[in-house]
Amino acid sequence: MPSNPLQTFDVVILGGGFAGVYAAQSLAKALRKKKPDAKIALIAEENHMVFQPMLPEVAGATLSPRHVVNPIRNLCKGATVFKAEATEVDLEKKAVHLFAGDFAGRIQLDFEQIALCVGAKIDLSRIPGMQEHALLMQNVGDAMRLRAHFISRFEEANLTQDLDTKRRLLTFVIVGGGYSGVETAGQLIDLGQAIHKSYKNVDIDHCRFILIHSREHLLPTLHKSLGHYTAEKLRKRGIEIILNRRAKAVTANKVYLDNGEEIDTNNIVCTVGNAPNPIMTKLDGQLGLEVERGRLKVGPDCAAPSVDWIWAAGDCASIPSVEGGVCPPTAQFAMREGLLLGKNIAARILNSPTKPFDFKAIGELASIGHLTAVAEIKGLRFSGLLAWWMWRTIYLMKLPSIERKIRVMFDWTLELFFHRDINLLNPRYSSDISETHLEAGDTLFRKGDPAFSFYIVKRGTIELRDGDRLVTTVKANQHFGERALLEGTNFLFHAIATEPTSLVSIRSNVFKQIVQADASFATALRQSARTFLTSNELDQLLRRLPDSLLDKPVESVMKRDLITLRKGQSIRETIELFKQRPKSYVPVTDDDGKPLGAIRKESFFLHLQSSDFDSDQPVAESDYVELPQILKESSIREAMTLMARSNASKALVTDESERLCGLIALVDILPTPSAEPNAT
């Protein structure tokens, strides 16, 4: 649950895209003189706004990544900006719950009015394999990654002499024939034609660019003549266009189309897959709100019809258009919707009338590479060099700050005189699966710390402690950390290395994907998670039993008639023993009767099934499992604490000479729940 509210704001705006940023700008400007004490909060998942129309040029090494983003704090001077993920909007309490990070945790902001500008999310799950193998074009990181991936494929192809491998490495499939797909395809072939001469063993004929589109012509929001022109120009430059086809499935090496065709490739760029934002779908039906396909239905003034303090703009809003229908989810509409939204919220605060959204589309433009573009403005259609000049001029003027305008102009000017940059800038972020080394005494995490990862011990030993109490000792080939991740809590124990220790850590996002995909694995982890008891849980367990029982010695309840194996007995003898006296565990002792461990029946037979063995050879010591050991004079209370600490349901009982004399099981101690009376 979130902590106490950080602050109460007059207006909270969710979303750091065009709609959210321009709404915050216009709201702060409108209230600056008439209500300077108004508190405005803008919540964004990133601390910058991306100018998305220019992302393909970042992928094509035409623009620097830094020049297509603007710090939101610089753009929204009158608002308090918080970088956080909005997880829930509680309309009843007028509160928004945020995840601020692993350490800051969950935060709550209260509000008087809320503006929803969260846009849409990406969902590739409808195409099997797309989520795992495709590159996206949604943010600057995606564009940088695509650029690095593209250049790295040229580097790899330059080293191989196998022509089939070279062609597969240099086959790039772009899924989606809208603006992003067409512009990305144009930029990639421009980049390929510009850099292939720098690679001695790569020819442009080795490259293959394929654009897949599900409709009958590219750029479906433009006139079909411009779509046909775009396809013709891209084909002449070497891009294969596949129309009226969908990607049915994707693997690491192939794209499968819905007509059965297969394309060999290791490079898929996906520019489709928009899905409703979960924040919006949860609001449907609350307070009379109506959300259709992830878009909140609002009035012409961007306010919800049933609630005058809820507003929406951008891709997550369904706003009536003056031209009929609803406004399209495009940047030019989102920007102007945001501007009007801010003014209308200010008007509501100042008890003034609001205004309807009356913007009509000016036109649309798409750059298709090689000094070529298409445009449709006020019903007039343009193509070629003139449209390209218009594209660059119009989008340059739309950039939010004069500084970014100058930087972009500088990049474009340099492009005319110098080669494109082929430096392989591939940022290396922390891996989702990594190794961690600890020295003796090092603390991996403390009780109450946020749960980041699931851990497996490769070498060494980790003690889990609850305060001063030792909960359990985790050794090589054992794991821990699953309970906090499964239950969504902070860590319940301290984790401290007792010797030099190496761990494999699996980040929480990957752990959760594995758990969701494998039900049996998830069940096993949930069972193991509950064996590590906190101090309170152990106390509750012990309180279920009377002190008169807990204070008794272990020897009063232990099993004395044990079946045991001697060290060195053969596999054949062990099998016969399990057949004669079915038991889940059989203790193993040395020649003096001192316990060395136990053979677990299930694990023993699984090992035999999966390996070749000589039935006369002795049982390997690697087949032994450890069970905790306790003196027969110890109390049952001590035995239960030991078993809980050791993640075990049984313990071996020894005498003063450390010889095995019995076995105690948790099931023999705990009371049997009383049976429910039969229903009559």
Proportion of strand residues: 25-35%
Number of domains: 4
The biggest beta sheet reads: 7 strands, mixed
From the 3D coordinates, which CATH architecture of the largest domain would you assign? 3-Layer(bba) Sandwich
- According to DSSP, the number of beta strands is 40
Average per-residue pLDDT, rounded, comes to 88
Separation of the first and last Cα atoms: 43 Å
Low-confidence stretches: 674-680
* Helicity level: 25-40%
Multimerization status? single chain
Helices, strands, pairings?
Blueprint: E1 5-14, H1 18-31, E2 40-44, E3 48-50, H2 55-59, E4 69-71, H3 72-75, E5 80-83, E6 85-90, E7 95-99, E8 106-116, E9 121-122, H4 130-133, E10 134-135, H5 140-157, H6 163-169, E11 171-175, H7 179-195, E12 208-212, H8 224-236, E13 239-242, E14 247-250, E15 254-257, E16 262-264, E17 267-270, E18 274-275, H9 278-281, E19 291-292, E20 295-297, E21 310-312, E22 317-318, H10 331-349, E23 363-369, E24 372-377, E25 380-384, H11 385-398, H12 402-417, E26 433-438, E27 443-445, E28 453-459, E29 461-466, E30 469-475, E31 479-480, H13 482-487, E32 494-497, E33 501-507, H14 508-517, H15 519-529, H16 535-543, H17 547-550, E34 565-566, H18 571-580, E35 585-589, E36 595-600, H19 601-609, E37 624-625, E38 629-631, H20 636-645, E39 650-654, E40 660-665
Parallel strand pairs: 1-2, 1-8, 2-5, 8-21, 10-17, 11-12, 11-17, 12-13, 20-22, 34-35, 38-39
Antiparallel strand pairs: 3-4, 6-7, 7-8, 9-18, 14-15, 15-16, 19-20, 23-24, 24-25, 26-33, 27-32, 28-31, 28-33, 29-30, 29-32, 35-36, 36-37, 39-40
